[in-house]
User: Fold these one by one.
Assistant:
Number 1:
Amino acid sequence: MKKELAKVYKGDVALSPDARWIHACGAEPSHWYILRREFEVFDEKTILSLGACHYAEAYINGELAMRFCERAYLFDIKYKCADISALVKTGKNTLAIIMDRIFDENRMYDAIVQINCGEKTVLVSDEQFRAAEYAPLGAGANFFVEGPVSPEIFDARDDAFAPAFQNGFDDSAWKHAELASDEAIARTFDRVSQDKNEMQTNTPVFAEKYVSFEKSTAENGVLSQIRAENGGMVLCETEITAERECEITIENLGGIFALSVCGERHAFGEKICLSKGSYRLALAGRDPKIFIKGEGFSLGSWKKAEPEKHDAPKRKRIPRFPWNDIASEEKLPERVECYLASKARLAMCDAGDTACELTEFEKIKYKKYISCADSITDEKLEKAAPRAKSEETLGIIGRENIFSPEGETIIPPSDEDITFILDFGVMHIGGICLDVTAKSGAKLAFSAFEAINDGGAIFDSERRMLIYTCRQGRNEYISHTRKGFRYLLVNIPARDYELKIHNIFLYEWRYPAETLSDFCCSDERINEVYKMCIDTAKVCMLDAYVDCPGYEQNIWVGDAGVTALVNLYNFGEYDFNERFLSLIAGSVTDGLRRLYRTNNKRYLSGRFLPCASFPTYPEGNIPIWSYMWVLTVAEHYKHTGDREALERLLAAVEETLRRSLLMLSERGLLSINGAWNLIEWANNDLCEYGEVAANNIMLSYCFKAFSELEAELGNTETAEEYKCASNRIKDAVNKYCWDEERGAYIDTVRDELSYAKYLEYYGEIGKEPLSFEDYMLLSRVSVQTNTLAVMYGVAEGERRRQALNMLIKNIEDGIYVAGSPAYRTVGTPSEEEAPGGIVRVGSPFFMYFVLHTLFENGYSELALRSIKREWGDMLDSGVNTCTETFNSKTEWKTRSVAHAWSASPAIFLVKELLGVKPTKPGFAEFEIAPCASDVDFAKGSVPTPYGEIYVEWHKDENGKMNISCQAPKECIRIR
């Protein structure tokens, strides 16, 4: 067990002009490096300052002092300071830094370092540092999830670096670090500043129980890969000979478009029953890799033919899943279909060498398990893949010791692998830690994953794997990459000796956010939902708000709009929130164009919005996401009352609103060609062009919100300008986006004028346009657009009533339809795609807008019923964090099981059910107004800049509510 890391130092520390950006000589992208230097200190407070362009770990005398994993724009780079006084000793000390490099040779700057002892600077990063490639850690492993999909591979047999972390190591064979050039520094860094936010946690977390503990072997079967010579598609076939009646399953390990057995098409993973005899297996693909699982059959040699490149299949995107890796279906050329449908073997050339190997991930995914007399097997795993049974025992000694830091677990010799799955109880994020005693060469495989359902363990990919090859004796290791998971599969290879596990656990690395609310009420289901939302938000607060701890860990600004409110109502981490807002404010500066979008016409013209995903994705922005950032700035001020923070962020907000006015059409509606127009994962009429109602509804409200804030700051002229802009856009939405015949707001304006603009845009980008008739048939009415019209005050009178009724009906029905605007059909949508001709709510993300609108319009009982039903279904599916999408009763649709964009109940249970709301910035004045409900009791607290407001209420036998409240003296309750 390691000590706590050094604490953040929040005093002002300026970097010396002598501290230079350095990198390892000859550093290559995706490789890991170690830099070291010795230094002397005396008996005074010692502060380490470290900045990095990606990820870095700093060690003092062999002890990990800090991790630097705070993302920032290169033009506004940050460094953090840590008090390392407890780690240094008077006299000589050693600083060692392990870091990965992601940039190419055009960006040769990786780290900047300084150590201060008292008033004296005793170390700066310069060419006196020595550097070497960190050989035991394989290239491609990435601390952040984005980037190469590679496992973390560490070979401890190659680790001769331990002495380098201590004084006296002879590093003369290492190369001197190189300095970044003055030209590179001037071109890149506009500002280098200190980040005073808290360090991320380094908390040890142990598993709570085993899900399985079994023997395992490689799945029986035949593995082949047929390689194309022209880079295109290959047609190939072989003969399967069943020696007896048997069952096979064909898995697509990559590149297969379609396959057939004796002319009959089969799906991947489908069980195929064969009688004794021979069968033609044919497939089409690009370098297809195939694994045929089963026993009692043999495979002949592969034959192949390579069609002309024009025979390549046309890809049809199928909206089975809504996100970017949406399921695909290949539309094959007719002669390829005929080839697959044939039952006879055709004359083809020999396929050559088809030998290949399973990747480490595939070896884990395709195993068969043996349940011994003392095995543990979760019933879902058993149901998904029935185990062979054995009367033998595993003979594990001290199996329960793995749940605590004390004791050891002894794995006796075994002719088969020993595989077990640990359940950590809830989603966590951090680094895998192991401490084992083994012989040299033992390869331990760890696969982290999020969920187990009726189909078994849902493994992700190699990116969440750790492959550790042991050196002789004791091995202690802390992962260098961050993984989000609840479950951890551990595979110990067959061996003829006893292996000891001293520890396998997780160090959790996240922002130290903890709930201050402690909300609870008389409805236990609501309490369970609240906890799942809080647990989800925690693991989505890292260096900034991220979408999820597992699949991406990316800073999506729309997702963050929800997580930020969970923070403000429950955690009160105001500095964290401001850092996020400031980070995204940087995306409207010229620095972004200069370094990230250098020659892009949109960015050269200055007509771009705040990024949707840090640092600059997508190129055309997602307007809804950008405007959620604007509104989060307003929410930050509402909760903190921090005028200085508001003024720091105001320039970026004003620039965003100014640019939005530049992108209005002649009808006064925002229209951005090339934008990713998105509200949520649903089948809306949204394209990369056009006057989108939702964008304009939210833009109108942004002007309204900041008109009020500008007035509060005394900027009366700007306030009036924004008020007028808000009203003009609101009027334009009501004039052009309302469909009188359908009695609803439409998603996108479609008429002759918009079609002319569409033709002009498609002519510029060289795309084939739709006919006017088909263009008009894209038009849709959605719950999303109409809900936003109500929530943001664009809909009034009868229109408001009709739009609100559409939402109420959707929630009362409880029908949710996930999809994607990109893959909707043309024309009248099917009932499956849009029940009753109306696009329904598609994901838990949009439920934030739904719940807000229901509570604000007096439908609190319906809102609470929806919370219990929708989030209760998540709990009933076996997860205890918020899923990215809704699962159905028959299909597991979600990808991520911890997505904070789905955590909005944690906002409304405090704001509406407990009933605490600020009426003046910073809770200088507040009200307690619990909504109508069948809940009899609630209590909790709300963070404010001055401390917590504690509230407790209960209803007496007559239904009268009795409220008690304790608040800081700076916070005045008005009712």
Number 2:
Amino acid sequence: MRNLNFLKLFYGLMLVMVSTAFVSCVDDNDDTEAPYLEVSPTTLIFGLDGQPASGSQASFDISTNRSWKATVKDDKSWVTLSKYEGEGSATIQVSIPENINDEASVVIEISNKVGVLMSETVKITSGSVEPSVVIYNDNVGTIEVDKNNWPYVDKYEGWNKTGIGSESVTYTGENASVRNSGLANTDAYAGASGPNIVFFGKTPTSFNVNKITLSSGQKNLQLTFGASRSVNNNGTYDNTFDVSKFEVALSADGTTWAPITYTKNNGDADYPYWVFATANFTLKQVPENLYIRFTALDASAIRLDDITLATGAGGTEIDLGAAGEPKVTTTDAKTITGTSATLGGSAFNLDIAEATEVGVQYIEFSTGTVTDIDWTKATKTAASVKENPWTVAVTNLTKDNQYAFRAYATTASNTIYGEPKTFVAMESTTTPISIADLVTKMTGTATEVDENYVIQGVICGDPAGKNYSYGTLYLMTKGATTAGNALSLYNNQIDVTQYALGQEIKVTLQKDVAKIYKRYDVPQVEGFSADNIEVISENNTVTPVKVTLSQLAAFVCMPVTVENVNIATAGVWKDGEAGKNHTFNVAGTSFTVNINKNASPFENQPYAAATASMTGIASIYQSAGQLMPRNLEDVSGFASNKPMIVSVDPSSVSFSSTGGSQTIEVTTVNQGSNTLSISQLNGILSAKLENGKVIVTSNANESSDDVKQNLTISITNGNSVTVPIKVSAKGGNDTKGTFTSMTPFLFAQGSDKVNAYSQDLSINETTIEGLKLGTGKKSGTFTTGALGVSGNKKLSFYASAWNKETMTVYIKVNGGGSVSGDDNITAEPNTGVAGTGTFTVTFTDSDYYTFNLTGLTPESTITIATDANFDGNGAKARGIMCGFQLY
């Protein structure tokens, strides 16, 4: 027995020792700081073209203090990441090919020897993205407001709500008023309206947009708005927009709220300090009404404008919780004839996947009220496709009989019915009206047509050319040659490429449904569907009318030709995702030629410097006539097959006195068999072409003067571009007096930018580019481009903290190499570093700092931060730097 007890004691002691050994080895990380991992955003959305959808992006940010690893799950090989593992915070670029309809997940993990400590997942969606539909928009109106008595939001009478779900919208708030004070947002972002804005006063302060009507299919949404923040700190204004100080939440009932996250651009870095914010989200269940609440946590500092809710590609899933009981809505009968009709419905607060069947009931109904109907005798027809909303085509109706109907949705527990509606099975009667007469009925206010009309005309724009706002058809009176005989048909739910230039169509406009108005002086018809369009004939001749520039506006929506159009400089019609305006002239009078962002046939198509006729649809912008070419044939007089260098990046190259290597990216069009060539550099400079890129190399400059040369990049039978090259003079043991920075330190060349901005500095009456890090609330961080040098170097630069503040600058080397000795300095405040715009700064030798770097490689980069964690999330630490030189 004693032996048995001894063995128990022995094994017990062994177990404790083993357990202790394991515990002591759990964390092999010498950093005693608690691990953290944050990833943003967690949803990326791409279109079929392989590019980010509107409001999305092609990268995500990792914020952590540990080594991390990113894994694309389920063998989704179509996803490519710029980095799959690393240490500390990073920005990961995501690339995907075209024509991918799929979803993928990227899991980011931080681990130790025992296992995974933390993980986050980024969802990547690629595929067809439906065109956006504006559900609600308000630019806060333009009426004058009394500055001595700013109206609170619930008392203001100048709201300018638009959108298909805006009719029932109301506004409430707490300590929120409408004002026209502060810096207006004019030109701060696309669509910035000014001057009226919502101002958030003393806390607590909030602003609610109530009862935006949603349809059951509107689950993938995008919310955008403009906002600014301005705090007066004893005469110094802090304009940094801190998203943590401005909260946005959603609700299905105005009581229970779900917060949403949003991103902003860097509009707060420069005048007028307005940001444009975007939130992409997906509603788990679609409520009948949506409420939006904006809450400011800074008192009397934040302004809001230009709120838009639209359909989008979706994003973070939002569960609105108690959104109410499931509900079915019966939609109006459509496409009614004497023997058939299309009926349907939609469900709210119900996941359509949970329904076992959806459809309609219908029954002949002649007298009494719909509440007296015995629905057990009705015909019940299920929809062939279980979707939300759904439609059912019913046939074999009796002409001129009235019918009652209602939609239904059946779940595992019960059947939910919509409200009854009625229709009469009869052929509708319409009144023919000419396009010209319909245009004369239009005013600046959208008005429902007063009876059933039918218009007939020829499509005079070219749907295949795509140079129009999505969902727009231009229609003109057949054979017309006088102004006022054309209009635009607009429905962004219709892919108009199914139609063609020269088709004659008949369009039925339903009373109290279709709307007509002059939208910014352009006659427009809305409120119709593809079912209302009937193609009558094909290939009709459309002859543009010859007009002068002064007649452009009068012929709006019609195809016109302007003769003797001139431009002195060749260019490219469209070279990016955005639209582009070009200035042409006739006899010295300039006018705008507009290329829409959707006009893919114009992408990377060059035009020549020439004088020729130009054709297009006449348009109006701010009362001035413009021209929108329908296709490349309309601008054939300016066609150019010549090869062209479109851009070079960077456009100039700067080396320190120690030299190095820099790569210039060259973008061309129409290159064909034509080749690139470069001019010869001499002395310590040389350049070579390699795979369409130019690599410039500099040896050390041993002279006391800067070396300056121009590199000319040319394409055979095309144009040339000049790139200035500079190598700084040898400065002995320092680079004092040099305030310009080497190319890798320029803002455009960097990455991982958090609270980092390009800052113009005026030094000795010369304006140079500097780097601003930090804000009035946070620190900042910036990582340079590849240094292009190797070995041991000194890094010197000038730095100053914000006026009356202090700033510590931290340096670390990435990709090979390290800092030898101190890795931080404390910069002194400078009276010139304050306010906005260009800073006029005087530096002294005490503002000049030097670090010793060892073991650099050409791929090395340097991260510069005003916090020790290099994440831009530390306490306020801001200032400017310039004159970055390696030697």
